[in-house]
Amino acid sequence: MVNTADEKKSEKLELARGCVAIYVGQERKRYQVPLIYLSLPNFQQLIKTSQEDVFDVKIDGPITLACPTHTFEQLLKIAKKTTHY
């Protein structure tokens, strides 16, 4: 069986159940983040500050955060300790 480029791409983009994809930094590194993390104040603030229009926090399309990946990885560590997820 031969995988086409589209099949390989869709395999790469699959998410674990209960997770959301978040793209971080200028390089748009992709992370799988548990949905529960999005309810944490630090994540909410980061999402709000990454939106172009501060008055409209509705997200259309992928979640993209304008912060360095190392900062985001530190936030993930804190979130994991906080939620035990």
Automatic annotation (TrEMBL):
GO terms for biological process: response to auxin. The keyword Cell cycle does not apply. Keywords: Developmental protein, Growth regulation. Pfam families: Auxin_inducible (PF02519). Coiled coil: none annotated. The keyword Transmembrane helix does not apply. InterPro entries: SAUR_fam. Belongs to the ARG7 family. This is Small auxin up regulated protein. It comes from Dipteronia dyeriana. The lineage of its organism: Eukaryota, Viridiplantae, Streptophyta, Embryophyta, Tracheophyta.
